[in-house]
Amino acid sequence: LFHVICGENFSTRTRPPPDKSKKYQKGETIQIITGDLIRSIKIPRDPSDSINLPSAEFKRIISASQVTTKEETEALKEAYRRKKEAEFKAAEERKRQLYEIDLSRKENPALVDLEREAQKWSEYLVKRVNAEMEQEEEIKNLNKLILNAQCQSIRDHQIQEKKKIQAKLSKEERRLDAMMEVDRLKALETEGQIEELQRKQRVKAMQQLHHQIQGRLEEKQLQDVTKELERQHMLKTQEKMNLEDLEALEKKKEQQQRLHMEVMRINAENIQAKEQRREEERLADLRIMEYNQRKLEQEAEYEAEQKRVKREKESVISRLRTRQEKVKDYMAEQNERHARRIQEISDREWRREQKELALKKAQEEAMLRAARMEQVHCKERFLSMEAGRERADFNRVLKVQEQALVRQKEMEEKQREKALRHAETIRQQIREHELSAIAKRREIFQQAHELTNEDHERLVRLNEVKETKLKKLRTMGLSEKCCKEVERKARDFPTNVCSASNSLNEPEKRPQARSSILPSVQFSFATNLHSQLHKTQVSK
Fold first, then answer.
1. Which of 165, 192, 218 is the last residue in one of the domains?
2. What's the CA gap between 364 and 201, in Å, rounded?
3. Contact predicate 375/393, CB 8 Å
4. Would 252 be classed as within a structural domain?
5. Each residue of 63-85: pLDDT tens digit?
6. Is the pLDDT of residue 180 over 80?
7. Residue 35's pLDDT band (cuts 50, 70, 90)
8. Could you tell me which of 265, 255, 253, 254 has the C-alpha nearest to residue 180?
9. Model confidence pLDDT, tens digit, residues 135-147
10. Among the three residues 171, 198, 218, which one is the final residue of a domain in this structure?
11. If you placed Cys at 497, which of 304, 390, 455, 503 could pair as Cys (CB 3.0 to 4.6 Å)?
12. How many angstroms separate the CA atoms of 32 and 42, rounded?
């Protein structure tokens, strides 16, 4: 597992492959032949051979070799028991729901399609709400925390596995070294026993031979020639045997020397492999330390960035809140100015029309007076000449004047009705403006209330999702320390629901103040308009 983590090939970290020509197969038996002894020795299998495993087999062995502690076993049993209980409860709930659905279908068979559509729609809504909740910034941050906790737990577990593997490898190396040392001592002891036995056998044979020679010399002193020949023959045989023993001893020493050199070479290779493995492990530890250092630096940078983003968000929210209040005040002031401007325009228009009517009336009166004077002059000039014509002209002019007066009265009546209609229109506009302002305030209050409720519901849903994810994180088998750290960071997430609701509820006082001012302004405006209309009617 350690080599897989470091990105290195497992086969390159095992022992160097031994020379197969100098190793014996499992169960092979060799014979050692000396001058007076033949021994059969069974060679055990060399445990120092390295094995190149594929990655899948290596992962399977590592997963099978993991030893869980008592607490982990109890936690797994408890999680399995809770899972079984949850599955049993879910199955019971599904059975109950299916039973109720069957009963409802039997009672209301026509509602099956509607129930299916409602169920599909509810499932769609649930999926959509869950997807939207997953896109929330708090849930994304919580998912990042959970992922970091899982990665940290996996990394700690890998480090523990690495330590266990290193301990096992060290223990196995010590065991192999002890076995090799025991085998070497046993081989040396066996060789010493064999040499001692051979020496005793040679001494015994020489003693027996000496006794035989002495006996034969004593018994067969008369047969000197024969015994001399026999003695010479025996001496030659003895020399030959001694030479054979010496040659066998030399061969044995050479073989022991070769075995000793082979053992020294294997020990040197093992020492070199150990040094190389220690160097590689040291480099791997350095890489892991560098990775941890980079990880800590990245986490520090990430926390600093999160704090900066949080400060920027708070400043942006405060600026937006101030800007929103200013915009609302400005809009209210603009509405009041617009209403006053409309009223002033209406007043100016009415005064202009009244002035035009008065001017037109004065012009008509001047024209009438001029016409009268002209008529008088005409009457005086033609009185003596056309008395009857003057009477007819007088009657005609009188009729024209009467018609003009009637038309003037009709025009004045129309102007008065027009002024009354205009005043009523202005009053209606004022009432509509008041109603629209009240409706707008109600709409603003309703929107603020809805936004507050939505933010409260969103906070409740976020808390439920957080609790669900934290419970799921605890069931994953992580350590209590990691779970508490994730829970603490999840509680530290900023929630702007209260601030948003306060910012939305604060402007309510200002519309109420404005609403208390508007009726007095409107009442004074209506009073002035009524007095002006009354003066106009009196003047007319």
1. 218
2. 173
3. yes
4. no
5. 666 666 777 778 878 888 888 88
6. yes
7. low
8. 265
9. 777 777 777 777 7
10. 218
11. 455
12. 11
